Amino acid sequence: MNTNYNHSFRLPAEWEPQSGVILIWPHEDTDWHPYLEEITEVYLQLADAITRYEALLITARDSEMVSSLLKERLTEEQIKRVTLFTCDNNDTWARDVAPISLISNKASEGGSQPLHLLDFCFNGWGEKFAAEKDNRINRQLYETGLLQGVLENHKDFVLEGGSIESDGRRTLFTTTSCLMAPHRNQPLTQEEIDKRMRLLFPNVERIVWLDHGQLAGDDTDGHIDTIVRIAPNDTLLYIGCDDEKDEHYEDFQLLEGQLKQLRTLEGRPYRLLRLPMPDAIYDDGERLPATHANFLIINGAVLVPTYNQPEKDKAALNTIQEAFPDRKVIGIDSRTIIRQHGSIHCLTMQLPQNG
């Protein structure tokens, strides 16, 4: 574990300026194999949307094949924004594999400051799935110079990017169900994990632990990015549930109650924007964790999962537009992605601008 915590660095909010986004490309030996063509099309749509606004770093087992696909889909100008790196992978969830980046507090004083790239242990969400190849990706990218900054080894601590949300200032959000789940960081207590994270993210003064809101079919034990997201101006977007017959109803009512009781560090209530609970989607009898909250914020746009549910998709897109009025809100059909129990935010990781 690194112990030289530099208090001039902070964990930014996702809507702050970015230098690029990371994607890990699917292949036939991942769990995407039964619908590889369909998920490849989703990845091409993501690549198209992202490269209209910023750079894209793709790791792929067969980078030549991916390059060929991209050249058929993207313009020459977009292709210039793509960097391909060849390496193997177990799966494709960049949000939980790629480094969590800290930026300098002193960037506004002039001069470029290197990112601090925190490389945590990813163990397949509590040893549910193989992850040894995924766990090596960051080091490989760094050693070839594709990750610009200082790579910090925190492999003694399990932390997934989807399990935390930052306001870019002094508050971090997470869920009790995930960070206290088995096979993560036992025997650490919640108090000890809280303290550890405030050391890792030195700008954070408090961690808000949410105790409710786990989606059926979620392999992650309740990642925050599936239920509650932070937006500018002390805004929280969250999933609500009004259907008393829905299995989520009671838990999400409790989540909403907890959010209404929260206050900012300045003592003000948060601005709450409610996203609809998508109608249940099943695959082979199993309910999938469909959620509009799993959106990706990039420079100038927000990429939002949709589920071919026109009324609810439109309501979610309009609500997210209200939270991000200066960005274009782009819906991307995510019915294939949720077949592997994640969505757009889970597949991606942004790299902030380094000063």
Automatic annotation (TrEMBL):
Gene3D superfamilies, sorted: L-arginine/glycine Amidinotransferase, Chain A
An annotated GO BP: putrescine biosynthetic process
UniProt GO MF annotations: agmatine deiminase activity; protein-arginine deiminase activity
Hydrolase listed as a keyword: yes
SUPFAM superfamilies, sorted: Pentein
The keyword Hydrolase is annotated on this UniProt entry: yes
Alphabetically ordered keywords of this record: Hydrolase
Protein name: Agmatine/peptidylarginine deiminase
Species name: Prevotella scopos JCM 17725
